[in-house]
Amino acid sequence: MRAEAAGVQEPGLTVGVEEEFLLADAATGETAARADAVLARARSLPERRSGAQFHTELLGTQVEAASAVCTDLAALGRRLAAAREELAVCARREDALLISTGTAPLPGASTPTAEGERFARIQELYAGVVRDYEVSGCHVHVGVPDRETAVAVVNHLRPWLPTLLALSANSPYARGADTGYASWRTIQQARFPGSGLPPWFPSAAAHDRETARLAECGVVVDAAMSFWLARPSPHLPTVEVRAADAVPTPDEAVLQAALARGLVRTALAELAAGRTAPHAPDTQVGAAAVWAAARHGLSGQGVHPVLERRVPAARLASELLDHVAPSLEETGDLGRTRTLLGRVLDEGTGADHQRRAAARGMRGLVDALARRTTRGRDLGRMDGIGAGTAGEAPETAR
C-alpha cells in the first residue's frame, strides 16, 4: 500500500493490498532467486497500468506488489490483476514463473536473503528459521483516523482472523510433499515469537509498550516488527490484516479486502456506539482456532471463538459474512462479496485446488499455480503491458 496515497477519507473506506509472490524456474518448477532481475524489469516498464509499487522480500525468490489505495473494490481488482500480469511478464523474461502460493511446492537449491540492513538483522536474529522461509501472504490495509482507533479496531477483529485464514488457505505443499495442512505457511510462521492472534490491548500506548518490550527482550529486530495476524500499521494510518496466505487469484484477494474492510467498518460502528471489544477469544482457544484453520481450511472443523467449541469452518465463514453484511451494504459490496465467498465455499480454497492439480505431479502443480495467478491469460501478447490488461485506470485515494 503506497504511503503517499494513504490520505484518509471516510474512516474505513480506503483499502490497499500487498501481495507476496514466489518465483519458480520455468524449466524445473523449483523456486529461483531472480527477484532482483524481475524487479528491475518491472520497475522500468514504460507503462504500468496497475499503479503498484514492487518490492523485494526476505528471500531472493520472492517479490511483492503493493497496490495503490482504492475506495472501490472493482477498481482494486483491476489493479491487482494488472500488477500480477506485469510481474508475470517480467518473470517470463527471466525464464521464471510468478506463482501465488503460501509455500513453495518445489524449493530450489538455495534462497539467498534479499539485500539490506534490516534483512541482514532478521537473518542474524532468526538464523535457520528464515534460511528456507519461502512463505508468502496477502496483507490488507484499511484506513483509520489514528493509531488509537487502529488498536481498538484490531481488538474487534481478533475473533474473525482465523476465519479469514481458513478462507485463504493456499499452502498444502512443502518440499515436494503434502503436509496434511491447508495452510502450512501458518505453521511455518508459528516458529517465530509472538505469532498468531494479537493480544487485546486497552490503548495504543499499551500496544506500543508491548512491542517495545519484545524488542528489548531481543526477540524482534525492532518495535515495528511483529508476527500477529493483524496490527496497527507501523508506518501508515491503517489497520493491517495479515491473516491470509497468498491467494491464487485476484478475485480471492478482493474477497480478503472486502471482508477485512467490512470488519474494520463494523468495528468503527461498534466503537462509535460506545462498545469496546470483549477479550474473547481466550488465548488458548484463539490459538486452537488458528491451528484448526491452518489444518483444515474450509474442509473440516473450525473453532468458534465465542462458543469455544468445534463447528464446521463453512459455518464460521457464513457467520463472518452475516457479521459484516450491514457494512458491506453501505459500500455497495454485499452482492459482490457474497458471490466471491460463495465461489470459494462451492469450489474450495486454494489448498483444495492445489491438491487437485497435484494429481498431475508437482511440476504440473507449479504450472497450474502460474496459470491461476494470472487467470491463464496469454502472457506472450503483452510485450507493451498496457492494452487490454486492466481496463481503465481507477481513481485512487490520495
TrEMBL record:
GO MF, one annotated term: glutamate-cysteine ligase activity
GO biological process, one term: modified amino acid biosynthetic process
Reactions it catalyzes: L-cysteine + L-glutamate + ATP = gamma-L-glutamyl-L-cysteine + ADP + phosphate + H(+)
EC class (word): ligase
Gene3D superfamilies given in the database record: 3.30.590.20
Keywords from the UniProt entry: ATP-binding, Ligase, Nucleotide-binding
Coiled coil: none
Classification via Pfam families: GCS2
InterPro entries registered for this protein in UniProt: GCL_type2/YbdK_subfam, GCS2, Gln_synth/guanido_kin_cat_dom, YbdK
Top-level taxonomic group: Bacteria
Statement: the UniProt record of this protein carries the keyword Ion transport: no
The protein's Enzyme Commission number: 6.3.2.2
Region (Disordered) residue spans: 377-398
Keyword match ATP-binding: yes
Family to which the UniProt record says this protein belongs: Belongs to the glutamate--cysteine ligase type 2 family. YbdK subfamily.
NCBIfam families according to UniProt: gshA_cyan_rel (TIGR02050), PRK13517.1-1 (NF010041)
Function text: ATP-dependent carboxylate-amine ligase which exhibits weak glutamate--cysteine ligase activity.
Name used for this protein in its record: Putative glutamate--cysteine ligase 2
Species: Actinomadura verrucosospora
